[in-house]
Amino acid sequence: MGLSIDFFFRLLGAVLGGIVLAILGRSLADLFGDEPAIYVIVLGLVGVLAGLILTPIFTTRPIRKIRRQLVSMPPERLGAIVIGIFMGLIAAALISFPLSFLPPPFQQIAPLGAAVVFCYLSVVILSLRQQDLRNFFGSMRPFLGGAVPVREEVSEVDYVLLDTSVIIDGRITDISKTGFIRATLLVPNFVLTELQHIADSAESLRRNRGRRGLEVLGILQQELPIPLKFTDMDVSEVRDVDSKLVALARELSCPIMTNDYNLNRVAELQGVSVLNINDLANAVKAAYLPGEELTVKIIQEGKEYGQGVGYLDDGTMIVVEDGEKHIERTVKATVTKVLQTTAGRMIFARLP
Fold it and tell me: Residue 299 belongs to what domain range?
C-alpha cells in the first residue's frame, strides 16, 4: 500500500510538474519570440523528471514522519496539541473582527497571521503544562459522572526512572536488597540503547562499563524482588538522553535516580525530583564531630608538608597532621574539622 501511494503521488507530481513547466516554456518562447515547441518539450520533460523525484519529499515523507510521531506521542501531549489548536483558533476568531478594519492588504493578512501565532502559543503553553491539564480534567471527572483516577495517580508516584550512570555504577543492586526502595524501577528504551552502544564500544574500559551495566540490569530483573520494567515511551522533541529523561520524568511525575552531577542540576532546575546515590552514600556515612577520636591507617603522604592520608571503611578521606612519619601504621587521631564536598566527605585530624 505504501509503495502504491508513493507511486501515485510521483505520477501526480510528474503530471503537474510537466504542465506547469510546459506553460512556463510557452511564456518564455513568447517572451523571446522563438518557436514554442522546443521550450515546451524541454521544460515539460524537466518538470516531469522533477515531479517524479521531488514529489515524495513534499508529500509522502512528511506524512509518514508525522504519522510515526503521532503513533509514539503520549496521549497527554496529543490532547494538549489538539486543545491548543482549538483554543488558538477561537482566540484568532475573536480578534479577526477588529483586524478586518485595517487597510488592505493587512485586513487579509493580519487574521491569518493572528491564527498562526495564537495556535502556536496555545500549543506551546499547553504542551509545557500538560501535566496540569491532565490533573485539571482528572479533578473534573467526579462532576462529569466519571470515576476518580486513583489507580493512575498511585502508579505515577510508584515509578523511579534509572539513568545510565546509576545502572553502570551497580550500587543500585545493593540498595535494592536492603528494601529501602519500594517503587518500580523504570528503564526507558533509549537508556537501554545508550547502554548497548557503550557495551559495543571499541574502547575496552568503556566496553566493560557497558557490559557491567547490562549485568546489573539482569540482576535487578531476575534476582531482586523489586519490579523492573522497560518502556518504549520517548520524547521526540529532544535528542540527548539526559533531556529525554527529564522530559519523561515531568510527564510521569516521577523522580530520576542518577549519579550524573550535570543531570542532577538540570533536573532540579526543571522541578524534577532526583535520587542521587552519591548523596545517599554520604548521608549514611558515620558522623564525626570535632574532638572525637578515630582509628585510621595512614597509607600515603598528603598535599601539605607533614600530612598523612588514610581512609575509613566507607571511603571517607582522613587527613592527619604530622602523619607522614606514620605511613603504613594504624594510629589514633582526634578530629579537628569535617569538610563536606561534592566529591564526598573529608575529615581533618591531628595526632594526640
Answer: 285-350
